[in-house]
Automatic annotation (TrEMBL):
The lineage of its organism: Bacteria, Bacillati, Actinomycetota, Actinomycetes, Streptosporangiales. Its main location: cytoplasm. The modification N6-(pyridoxal phosphate)lysine is found at residue 279. This is Adenosylmethionine-8-amino-7-oxononanoate aminotransferase. PROSITE patterns: AA_TRANSFER_CLASS_3. The gene is bioA. The keyword Transferase applies. It comes from the Bacteria. It comes from Sphaerisporangium aureirubrum. Belongs to the class-III pyridoxal-phosphate-dependent aminotransferase family. BioA subfamily. Pfam families: Aminotran_3.
Length: 426
């Protein structure tokens, strides 16, 4: 099909995420992807500054990941996981247990499902029914998970009356990472004693009814791309231990090196009782996620009544194993550090634009926060004109590029973001 036919048929039949179906917003047909670049059906090439929603950390069309998928396809594409097992899933579980220090691995088929499973584990293990989380959080779009997303600033306010009522702490101060202002970069702020006291009081007050505390470690993703001090996560771990509450770490966005550590929890030096991983797990090839837990949690849960049809899918597990092998071999810490420095240097000018409220960088994450909600179509037109693909939301123009992006490609991304920032209304 040519690009025009693809667009017409897409508009007639496909419903895209976070969008209306009538009328649909424009979607740009992609003909191929290789390395950090997307090739559109009209021939244009764009740098994928999103790692295709934070998943393609090794880039697209990677020969090692391609080979893993092809080799597994010749053996078996899928087999049910109830009463059966297979080598790709076993190998993957061993790797995840070694990386996380959590020996029990429940394989799921999406990040939202992984968090649903974590909630079920916590409720069954404790016999309690409420969770504590922090505002500005985001954990997915299914019903149990929506209940622990921000109830006011999140995307799920339409369903508030249908959701369980959990306990929400105030959002932590967004004062970690590298913040760039008109006068230059400022140091990260120390932890706020008043916020630590707020956490102490709230957990103590609700502890008898809490099954778990659930947070995104150090970085709040789709709830605002906010970076918070690891001391708050350490205190939540201490409070969970003091009050006999479990700690769930949603590492779906932060896992596998994105923040400069393997997991966000590593910045705080803590191990959660339950951890959710996804997105980058398969390097952006196939949908797969996992919920990992400590031995004592698994013993307390007993039988977990959950079983996705494609749980432990051999194709996805084989590619995930190859992706983790590739991550272990590449100098990802140095790559992420280089990306952080490049983002800080390249976005410094954007901090001086009149319509910008904040510019911040942490690991391989760069954020331009506008003073008002951005015009997504206009921003995408500007960045695509610079040969870059980004997907803004709310007041945020941000990037989470693949780890192998070159300095020149990264400069193109920051130039595009800076041009979009300069076009924001004052």
């Amino acid at each position: 099909m040519n690009a025009g036919t693809l667009r017409d048929l897409d508009r007639a039949h496909l419903w895209h995420p976070y969008a209306g179906a009538t009328p649909p917003e424009p979607a740009h047909p992609v003909a191929g992807a290789d390395g950090v670049r997307l090739t559109l059906a009209d021939g244009r090439e764009l740098i994928d500054g999103m790692s295709s929603w934070w998943a393609a950390i090794h880039g697209h069309n990677h020969p090692r990941l391609n080979a893993a998928a092809r080799e597994q396809l010749d053996v078996m594409a899928h087999v049910m996981f109830g009463g059966l097992t297979h080598e790709p899933a076993v190998r993957l579980a061993v790797r995840l247990a070694e990386l996380s220090g959590l020996p029990k691995v429940f394989l799921a088929d999406s990040g939202s499902v992984a968090v649903e499973v974590a909630i079920k584990m916590a409720v069954q293990a404790t016999g309690r029914g409420r969770l504590l989380t922090i505002r500005n959080g985001y954990h997915g779009d299914t019903f149990g998970v929506m209940a622990v997303c921000d109830p006011v600033n999140g995307m799920h306010h339409l369903f508030t009356d249908l959701l369980p009522r959990h306990v929400f702490a105030d959002a932590p101060p967004c004062d970690h990472g590298r913040h760039l202002g008109p006068a230059g970069e400022r140091d990260a702020a120390p932890p706020d004693p008043a916020y630590l006291a707020h956490l102490d009081e709230l957990v103590a007050r609700h502890a008898p009814e809490l099954a778990a505390i659930i947070v995104e470690p150090v970085v709040q993703g789709a709830g605002g791309m906010r970076f918070y001090h690891p001391a708050y996560l350490r205190r939540l771990r201490e409070l969970a231990d003091e009050h006999g509450v479990l700690l769930i770490a949603d590492e779906i966005a932060t896992g596998f090196g994105r923040t400069g550590e393997m997991f966000g929890c590593d910045h705080a030096g803590v191990r959660p009782d339950i951890m959710c991983v996804g997105k980058a797990l398969t390097g952006g090839y196939l949908t797969m996620a996992a919920t990992l837990c400590a031995e004592e949690v698994a013993e307390r849960v007993g039988v977990l009544m959950h079983g996705p049809t494609y749980m432990g899918n051999p194709l996805a597990a084989a590619v995930a194993g190859a992706s983790l092998d590739l991550l272990a071999e590449r100098p990802w810490r140095q790559e992420v550090g280089r990306i952080e420095d490049g983002l800080a240097a390249g976005l410094a000018g954007a901090a001086r634009a009149p319509g910008v409220a904040d510019v911040r960088v942490f690991g391989a994450i760069g954020v331009v926060e506008a003073a008002a909600p951005v015009d997504v179509a206009k921003v995408q037109e500007i960045v695509m004109g610079h040969g870059v693909w980004l997907r803004p939301f709310g007041r945020l123009i941000y990037t989470m590029p693949p780890y192998g992006i070159t300095p020149a490609e990264l400069a193109a991304v920051t130039d595009a973001m800076s041009a979009a920032a300069a076009a924001l209304p004052a």
